[in-house]
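Q: Got a minute? One more chain.
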Amino acid sequence: MIDWLNIASYSVGGAMLLMMALGIAFSALMPAIDRWSRRYFITLFSVLLLSVAAFFTDAIIYMLPDVITAERIIVFFEFLTVSALMPMPTVLLLHWCREDIKSSALFRAVMALWCAFFFILIAAQFTDAFYYITYNSQENLFVRGPWLPLLPVPMIVMMILNIAGVIKRRKKLSKRYFIAVLVYLLPMTTALFVYLFNDLAIFIIFGMALFALVMFGLILSDNMEHFIQQQREIANQRADVMVLQMRPHFIYNTMMGIYYLCDQDPAKAKQVTLDFTSYLRKNFTAIASEDAVPFKNELEHTRAYLAVEQAQFEDSLFVSFNTPHTMFRVPPLTLQPIVENAVKHGMSASSDPIHIFVVTRQTDTANEIIVEDDGPGFESVDNNEPHIALNNIRQRLEMMCKGKLEITTREGGGTSVKVTIPLSNP
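A: Always. Here it is, folded:
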């Protein structure tokens, strides 16, 4: 005779194992999910996977003879993994509400209850008053003791505290998050109450798994919306950069300079034409790029730009490069606009020669690019074109690689622009 209950148990267990494994994979690989959510869901799905695996193993070995000790270990592990899931909604709730977990009274209360549960579970291993395993002619039997209801009590209180915490913080949550959490917490608390009298632990795990998948879907949806919005902003920033970069008067001045050089110094005219062509090609390539590019590309682009400018201001513009560290990536059009800003502002504000210094270095935590000049300096709050370009770079650094741009007055006069890109970013 077919045992449909066992078939159903194995089917549900196998499906849940697959769902949790996919949950871990998606959490680890989805590019749109933020770092905190990635760690949280990898942890949650991993605990769920272990919990489901314990129940699945229990379903396999409970009919095997002479495995009472193994059965007792599996039961212990089932209780432990189920209890480990209870603080997870607390952590998620506090994160959503932007509260410090370590100083939260709710989190401390939940963890105190979890510790109480853990000590009760350890005590249960030394007495049959909570439960024990016996074997008859067909299967290992889980026998409830008179003290078994003490085990789920701390978990029930944890869930009640979570419900109270959600209701208290309802104004800090979006409506769909508030409803989604309550839809999970209320039935799960009811299931724990039922477990005081009946063995329904598999339903608790199943409910938690469904909650995890729903929450993951909600957060992934929000992160996807944020990611799409971020890509739109980057695209808009790239369009702004293109407008700022392709300045008609720069092209006009360069072409007129080449025109006059053709008679005065044909060899130099050919070199400037080559440098200008290289500048334009790299400019168009950078504008079209959607991802961070090797810093070497930015360096070549900057050198091509400076070669064109120095052809016009060879007695007024001097540039020094100290860039031994180039093995990192930056948003496209990062270095060249900074250097161009220094050239434009320095040459337009003073008739004195200007010196520009480009330095790269690696610290313990970040890659750094420093561009300094000995020009007259400027106020970073001015609303003119050079500052628009620097603000553009600052925004793209933050969006694409968590980097930052700082503008300070250079010691001895002039301006210093520092770009910092964390080592954890590509």
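A: Residues 50 and 337 are 52 Å apart (CA to CA).
Q: Perfect, thanks.
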